[in-house]
Amino acid sequence: MDFRRIEVIFLIVFFSLDIFLFLSFRNSQQLVSSSSTNTSTVAEMKKRNISFGSLDTKSGYAYYLGSQPDNSLAQNISKLRNQEVQYDEDSHKITSNLNSTIAVTAADRKETMDKFIKRDMNVLFGKDYKYSPQLSTTSQMVYVLTRSLGEVYDKTAQLDFTIEDGRVVGYTQTYINSTIILHERQAVKSEKDVITNLYANSEIPNNSKIAYANLAYTKLLEAKDSTIYIPVWFVTIKNKDSKVSSIKKINAFTGNIIKSSTTNGDNYSAQ
Amino acid sequence: MKFSRLIVQLLLVVAVVTSIVLSFFIWTNTARYQRGKNIDVTSAQSNKNEIPMNQVISPTSVIWHDGTDQHLIYNSNDNISLSIQKVMQDWKIDQPKEVSKKDGAYYQKVIQGKNMLQLVYPTSIASSTFGYLLNNDSLKNDKGYTFNRILINLKNKKDQNVYFANDSNYAVYKAKVRNASAAPITKLVYKANINLKIRLDIMKHGVFTIYTDPIKLKSYSYVISGKQDGEYSTALFDSNSNGLVTSEDNGVYTYNYGESKRLISDHNTEELTFEDYTDTSVPKTQFAFLQRGYQKVNNLQNSVSNLRLYSADWKDKDLIFREYVEGFPIFKKSQFGSIRIKFSRKGSSEHFLNKVLEVPVPSNQAATKLKSTTEIFKGLERVGYSPNDIQAVEVGYQWENETDNEKVVDLKPTYYIKISNHWKPYNEWTNESAEE
Q1: What's the pLDDT tens digit per position in B177-235?
Q2: Strand pairing of B61-65 and B116-126?
Q3: What residue of B is the nearest CA neighbor of A193?
Q4: Which of A59, A187, A203, B397 is deepest in the core (most CB within 10 A)?
Q5: DSSP summary character for residue A51
Q6: Which residues make beta-bridge pairs with A87?
Q7: Which residues of A touch B32 (CB under 8 A)?
Q8: What architecture is domain A43-63+180-270?
């Protein structure tokens, strides 16, 4: 009788041990599977509802570029017609109010303004600029300067149109005439490196969309009367629900995330 | 009654067996899980934004014989030596065989060879190290041979060999190459935008690069950056600063981490010394020696893109790294270059300068025209140094702080001469300018 009772107790004990072991076995299985997907960050990002297009794994080369202050805007300012123009000597910037405003809609504004800037009497060196949907908002259309080595996303080389009530009322313009290569070419991080690095640093929240990822030159610092530009990845992350988007900047040489200090002129933090 | 007891016993056996099976699975499985995780962590850490090792340990000058003369070439937009290394990564290079040794006359003929392209390392490296840097399996296992020149014939299609030469013992080795073409290299050579006529001469203290004509070289400017002592101590002591004992004497700060590690920072000269008495293992192969040096350098500086291995003394386990600009070394006000690392059974030591080149900026200085090397030898002879006293001559960049902007440094070219183991610019030896 006693022996039978012991048997029953043993049965209960082993049964609960089995349940415990089974549960911990299943747990460790799950850990294994999660660690193996860890190696593929891209798959994990997809799982967290982060959407993006195909990521380029090719890493190219870029340069340190320098440019000297440039007066070509001031020299050619008399060519402009049908607008009130002001020129700021310090920032080498044109501020213009159009005499006849231009009606634009969200759909046709690129086409309309592309045509507008082609003429020298409307905008100086307009052919050198390209529309950037990434930097533009509903009230502002941003055109960036294109150079043979790449585009420049920077306040020192930009053409911004102001839109009020569906009409373009004026613009500001900065320009750099020539850039010189300061150092031999250096490898830059690929788009995939940059996106996975952002994700690893918890800069990409769940349920968001990578709307744009562009490599462009931007101002690093000013020294000896010259402006130095470095390649930087501009990544726009858009929240799928709130539709709020933010731009992250990554130094393409080092892969370091540049903490946003958009107002800071001497952006030495880019290191 | 009996039947139910049988069921209980049967169930008990099943439960025991299941528990054994499950325990077995868990044990084997956890082990696999943990191993997998470790691999993941190390691989993620190793490629953390680092400049690859074959850029830090790479040839610094490229010499090309165009059929009539030898030229030192450089492309200021695209580093030729790094690009050639990339091309060579696809080559199949067999194990090298010795051609000659200690024959100065033959050696001179080889390094002055027609249509030869030479990649020159500042210091000699082992063929196995070269194999690791190129990721070439047949060279990785090769042992014994060291060299500092790689020679490739770009014109002679029948010469399917790559030659290795060592200035210190005049040894020449040859290795058969397959899957190689000269065309991409020739293309890189013709893109060079700096082209200086030279002659390679053998003198008492070895091979000298002689600039036969006066040379015109650009000046450069860089924004320099330095770090606070605290940033170095966090990186070097790998722990917080709680255990630090600090003392100060005339601007020389000493940080002690227990008895095992010490950082000395001289704020007057901006030179730092780090000693690690726990790091007592001495590297056993040359590759391990260079690799450990490379890791230490990466730990010291944020950006090592301008840094090159300048000298590797295997006997004393002593490494020197220097910063380079456009293929020429930069001489700062220290005797040791930029970083000096020494391994020994008593511990390792790192000697380094706080100021590093960070960002290139346009220079407003005109190009400098330097005398020919023959003129330099004559000038040294006038003050009593015979060519036999001269251990080495090198065109390098002198570090000049700008008086009005201490964040910017100007780099001006000049001749550096090594006599009785001391590097000094030409004007300090002779009181005479090296400029034309």
Answers
A1: 988 888 999 999 999 988 999 999 998 898 999 999 999 999 999 988 888 888 888 88
A2: antiparallel
A3: B49
A4: B397
A5: B
A6: A94
A7: 32
A8: Beta Barrel (2.40)
Instruction: Give the start-to-end residue ranges of the domains of chain A.
Output: 43-63+180-270, 71-173
CB of A131 within 8 A of CB of A148? no
How many CB contacts within 8 angstroms connect chain A with chain B? 112
For residues B298, B304, B310, B316, the Cα torsion angle rounded to the nearest 10 degrees is -10
Q: What is the pTM of this model?
A: 0.78
Beta strand pairing status for A140-147 and A129-131?
A: antiparallel
Residue B79's closest chain A neighbor by CA? A184
Distance, in Å, from the CA atom of A159 to the CA atom of A99, rounded to the nearest integer, reads 18
**Nearest-CA distance A182 → chain B (Å):** 6
List the Cα angle A251/A253/A255 in 5-degree steps. Answer: 55
Which class does domain A71-173 fall in? alpha beta
Q: How many CB atoms lie within 10 A of CB B287?
A: 20
Q: How far is it, in rounded angstroms, from Cα B346 to Cα B348? A: 7
What are the φ/ψ torsions at residue B383 (nearest 5 degrees)?
Answer: -95, 10
Question: Which of A14, A193, A226 to mutate to probe the B interface, most B CBs <10 Å?
Answer: A14
Residue-averaged pLDDT of chain B: 86
pLDDT tens sequence across A132-185 = 999 988 889 999 999 888 899 999 899 999 999 888 899 999 999 888 888 888
User: Is A32 close to B36, i.e. CB distance below 8 A?
Assistant: yes
CB atoms under 10 Å from CB of A225, counted, come to 10
- Report the alpha-carbon distance of residue A33 to residue A77 in Å, rounded: 65
User: Contact A271/B302, CB-based, under 8 Å?
Assistant: yes
Output phi, psi for B434, to 5 deg. -85, -5
Instruction: Return the SS3 of A172.
Output: strand
Helix axes B229-237, B286-300, angle to 10 degrees: 140
Q: Where are the domains of chain B?
A: 54-200, 213-436
C-alpha distances (whole Å) from B179 to each of B91, B115, B127, B161, B182 are: 5, 20, 19, 11, 10
Could you tell me if B408 lies within 8 Å of chain A, comparing CB atoms?
yes
Q: Which parts of A62-216 fold into alpha helices (H)?
A: 72-75, 109-117, 191-200
Give dist(CA B350, CA B296) in Å, integer. 8
Q: Give chain A positions within 8 Å (CB) of B362.
A: 66, 68, 180, 182, 224, 226
Q: Give the CB-side neighbour count of residue A217, counting CA atoms within 13 A.
A: 29
Tell me the C-alpha distance between B110 and A130, whole Å. Answer: 55
* C-beta neighbour count of B75 within 10 angstroms: 22
Using one digit for the tens of pLDDT, what is the confidence trace for A206-239?
888 888 899 999 999 888 788 999 999 999 988 8
* Level-2 CATH architecture, domain B213-436: 2-Layer Sandwich (3.30)
Helices B127-134 and B286-300: angle between axes, nearest 10 degrees: 50
B40 touches chain A (CB under 8 A): yes
**Least CB-CB distance to B22: which of A11, A22, A224?**
A22
At which residue do the structure tokens 């299941």 appear?
A: B18
| Distance of alpha carbon A182 from alpha carbon B81, whole angstroms | 18
